[in-house]
Amino acid sequence: MAITNEIQLQVDNLYMAFGGVQALMGVSFSVKKGEIFSIIGPNGAGKTVLLNCINGLYHPQKGKIHFEGREITRLKPYQRANMGISRTFQKIELFKGTTVLDNIRLGRHIHLKTGLLSGSIYFGKTAREEIEHRDFIEREIIDLLEIEHIRDKVVGMLPYGLQKRVELARALALNPKIILLDEPLAGLNLEEVEDMARFILDINEEERWQTTCVLVEHDMGVVMDISHRVMALNFGEKIAEGTPPEVQNNPEVIKAYLGEAEDLYVTRR
Prior knowledge:
six-stranded mixed β-sheet; alpha/beta
C-alpha cells in the first residue's frame, strides 16, 4: 500500500502506571495511513501496554489517542473495533475447543446486522448475510493465510505456528483499517517466521487489504526488513523514532539492547 501523509493514528503524551510502576511516560507518536510502523524495545519497555491503550483494554492516566481524527482515549474496545481497529495478542487468545472456522467467524460479529427474530428463523436477509460473511472469510482470509487444510480442525489440536495464523485470520475477519500485531513471530521457527512476515506484507500491500500495521516485535531482522518506520521504547519512554537504519544505528537503542556500541542488526533466527 502506498503510504500517504494522512495521520491515521495519533498518540499524544501517554502516561500509564500500575501502582508504583510507571509503564509509559509521555509517549507520543503518529502512524501514517498505509505504514508498517514497528515498536521495539527490551522486555518490560511498555510495548504491549501501549497496544492495550490503543485498543482500549487499558485507559491511560494521562494523554490522548486519536484515530482518523476522532479522539478514542475513553472509548470501549468494541467501539474501537467498530471503527476498524483490530488486534492480535502476545499470548494466543483463541477458543481452543472450537474449530478454526468458528474462531475466524467470531471476528465478523460486529458486521452482523440482522436481529434476534430474523436470526432465529434463518431466512431471507439473515441467510444472505451469513453467506456473504462466509464467502468473505473463505475467499479472502483462508486463501490469503493458506489455512484451507485446517479450516475444520479444532484449534487446540493445532501446532503453535498454525494457531498464530488462525489468530491473525480472526483479526482480519474484522476487515480492519489498522491492525495491532503483538509479537506475531514469537515462538515460530524460521520457516514460520518467513511465512508470517510475508502475510504481514500482503495485508499491508495487496490492493484488497491495504491495511496499516502497528507491529510489536523482537525479531530485529524482520522489523528492519519490512518496516517503514520504527519507534524504540525503554522503561516506558520513547528513545528513538525514524527509518529502520536510523533506529538500528541509534546509540540509545544500541545501549538499551546491548549495553555497548555494537550494531543492533541481529541475524534472523
